[in-house]
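Q: Can I see a sequence and its folded structure?
A: Here is a first one.
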Amino acid sequence: MPDIRYVCLSDLHFGAENSILSSLKDDHITVDPSKASSVLDGLVAILRTLIEANEDQTPKPTLILNGDILELALANDNVALMVFELFLDRVFPSGGDALFDPVILYQPGNHDHHLWETARERQYANLLDTLKPDDVLPVPWHGTSLYYLEDSRPVHSELLEELAKRRPHDQTIEFRVSYPNLGLRSDDQKTSVVFHHGHNVEAIYHLMTTLKDYVFPGRRPATEVWDIEAENFAWIDFFWSTLGRSGDVGAQVGLVYDMLQDDHAIQRLAGNLSNGIAMRVAHKGIAGRFRWLIKGVLHKVLNLIASKVAASERRIPTVPLSEKSRVGMMAYLTGPLTRQLAGEAPKQDGQLPEQVKFIFGHTHKPFVESTKVEGGLANPVRIFNSGGWVVDTKEIEPLHGANLVLLDENLEVACVRLFNQATRSTDYRVRLDDGLPAEQGPFYQRLSTLIRPDDDVFKNFSKAVAGLVTERGRSLTDIIEHAFDTEAPAS
């Protein structure tokens, strides 16, 4: 019988106050990095139940962390890392059976993008080791090879590996960093599974490319994955992956982010900004007489800008993937990803795999589908979204939730729907996602015998999720309502 060989998780956002995998202090706002949340313990219990059912316990499954694992944009580094330690302690228990192979594959997303930047420097240093003293230094490379497990010189995250050494583990844990795509392929080369965090499906993460195309319309367009990253990495790294390290400013940016989840708060935020700017630029003279007009114009402009920033994919609650993001996903699949698949085909002959499976997260709305992709891929691409673990709206969003993505040795993919947000606690039930009949082979059939929602391990997990989703919604409401207090709560 097929065993679990790969386990993919994404969008855990360790350290974020709105992640149900973080534990909060009594104020229900501040993360307590010394204590594991009940949902984190429940997740590990489910992982252990499923993995221990493997008929062959060697090797252990490989853990693939597919982005936004650490919350580096809206939390302090130390908090995010300490919560991550709690996870490592549970999946690599000292004196107990480890759940995973000690080599973890880490694919950064937008909220932990900075881990890629530090790994990219290590990748460049590895390259320098191969050069002669008089060789011309090449331009730094903004990506890793697609089939990363076949790479003879993988890039390591020194930060995460040093972090893992702080606690007693029975094995030395390695973190191999890939970006922006990680591929697995079958022995016959006919099937490729590609992991990508998913931020490249949204236009905002291509902002610098868009500006370049407007300002210099005749320039060569960015078509390769590394070209897109080269043009946009600084913007992504600054805005989405370093603000948590900005002291009090970082905390206040986190507060602004929370406010962008609420339409009324957006209005108040734009009003405060426009009033403050109007007071500064029109405090005396003739301009002062028109302060009301300046304020009104600024309010409309700033409200429009704030609304655009807030209108991310996860704030569209009616469909698993909005039309704009679907267009972005198709553009990524047909363009940069297809070219990378062709460029790293066997013997560089450009032969594309017969079947491509695309696994991504980022949107926090798990779904499974099959879609036809033009441009060289013969068969429809099978799409698997892993969802997310944060509560970033005051209202319950039924499409928001998390998938546990599992693969066997034959690269059959199965998604365990761990939860969707719901108004009734009884609606939280772990189940096997049955969205793709083509993936319901022997691996799926075996998992269907293991996932029994009424067993204690699944019931306890569902109960914990229901409680924390409700609690995080109340916390977000409190944060937004007190956002304009003199002493705003820390994010």
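Q: Show me another, different protein.
A: A second, unrelated one:
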Amino acid sequence: MFAMKSCFHICRFLSGCLLLLGAFSAHAQLVNRQLVWADEFSVGGFPDSLKWSYDYGRGCPENCGWGNNELQYYTEGRRENARVEDGKLIIEAHREDYKGASYTSARLVSKYKGDWKYGRFEIRAKLPSGVGMWPAIWMLPTAWKYGGWPHSGEIDIMEFVGYAPDSIYGTVHTGAYNGMLGTQKGGVAARKDLSSSFHVYAIEWTADYIHFFIDGVKYYEYVNQKKGTDAWPFDQEFHLILNVAVGGNWGGKHGVDNAIFPQRMEIDYVRIYQ
């Protein structure tokens, strides 16, 4: 009996040591993390051209390769749709006739100006509201190493649809798991004030996993199960995309409320750590 009790106490001590070592390891990773890229939006005017470019147009047939039957025209260098003011990046959707579309908005990309393989990505944002809105903070591969979408992957750090105002979604798409097949992998987090308050949306991306967070709370984990690039194409550089869509396959599922415009997504900061 004494030997059994001694073994129990030793095992419990060793377990405690392992937990402590794990905590120290996590803390060390946090301490050693370096800020490698950021935009604090401290200078008013147009978004910083050294950090951001525009995807513009209406998607197919004008600009095939992106778009989900959305209704907006993404403009380029138009202050009404993308500007920095009061220390925030504003991406604003308007109801207006513009080049054949009934709405305008903006889609900013860091491609070739900010491209990363692994890291922690933090974006503090306040979201638009109303039925028909579909803002997103997400990532696409820069070189498309494994072929066109979805084979080279997509990481949706945050998606929101206006008809579900209390929910945000974090999702990955790959050749095996994607929206076309209805097999995409992701999680959902609930908050009551997504359009009235700022929240920090983040992922931690390593060679082994992608963790999704809101305000520091992890709500989803996608693990590299070593099943090949069809399930894990996330071993290449990706870039950031910030956009506010109107309507579309998901955002427009319940139509668009034209009484809500203009609507904006405000970004307080973007910070990338490695």
